[in-house]
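User: Potassium voltage-gated channel sub A member 2, Desmophyllum pertusum:
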Amino acid sequence: MIMEGANNEAKDGGDRLVINVSGAIFEISESKLVHFPQTLLGCPQKRRKYFDSQRKEYFFDRHRQAFEGILFYYQNEGRLIYPDNVPTEVFDEEVKFFMLPVELGSCEKLESILLGDHNRSRPLNVWQRTLWELFEFPNSSLAAKMLAVLSQVFIIVSLAGSCLKTVESLHPARVREAKNFQKHNTSVYPEIKTTGSKLQEDEWFSFDLVCYSWFTLECAVRLLASPNKGEYFKLLPNCADFATILIFYLELIVKMTWPSAKTLVRLLETFAVIRILKLLRYSEGMKILVLTVVSGLRDLGLLITFATTIVILGSSAVFFVELNENEDSDFESIPDTFWWAIITICTVGYGDKVPSTSMGKLMGAICAVLGTVTIALPLFRFAANFRSKIENSTYIQSHRDRNHANAARRKSQQ
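Assistant: Predicted structure for Potassium voltage-gated channel sub A member 2:
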């Protein structure tokens, strides 16, 4: 029985309130709610009519998954996150019901920032929906899980191959001979350069062709099965897919039509490592790390500003101090001293360039201390934000798993 004007709170020891949302039990500290008295849960008078005196709990016949996001609002100091698997319009209605004073358009969406909102539209065609779920939802079936594992294997093997290509001992003997000849002889023989290029291409071409054939097929199927083609390239992993494939084919064209453009080829090979971003689809930790960096761009900007100021001031001071007291100074100019200042404030200290005077060493010590303080302060906030997002993700997943288990249990009992 729901009591109007009940005096007893639904507390389960201490100041924890018990909240029943359509059968799902949630608990939250009352001290978290009092900071938001304008909301339904934060105001004792507003929430009183939903109190069940017999069960000693507050009962709401509302959307259970959406309430996870509502609960996060109180647990994270008024920061709203859209839960996964909840349509946007449904969650907006829940936000209005619980009287959260937020602008719905500014809410963060933990999954859609990186992977999009799959709940807003689904393919109507049966085969298209089957392919879409197979590639976009690794946990939807055993086949989808196996496909996700296969994709990760191709990504990791491809990255490993890019690294192994640079190992001299893994190159064919004739390529090594050609390279050694070119290294120790001033004359250049076009036939040796061409032969070495072809051999090197033949040695790794089959390996690259297999990996990138899979990447091409995967990207084509994802695009074909996507319910919203216009939104496809707005998502980071999809952009990484397309960029990876484009770079490979550009590199292939350059090698075939312009063999002497080795600098351009190496530049393309360097950019090709962005395919590591393809792992964002499968790694929750990587997604959270990217979100943490994006949300901390303001702090990162302040860090760069402070560090740049210290670099300029420290470089100028050390240059003039060393120039006045030591004619054989390692520092030839202020820009030349930037390198020393950067590795000093980062507390790396390679030692390739060091001040030799007492005042120069004092300036170096000051730069090191200021650099430590400048870098440490934003890192604390970055670490706290990362931990908060990890906890949020874990909490959402645990509630999602519990709700799925309850649904399966109810289905088995019917």
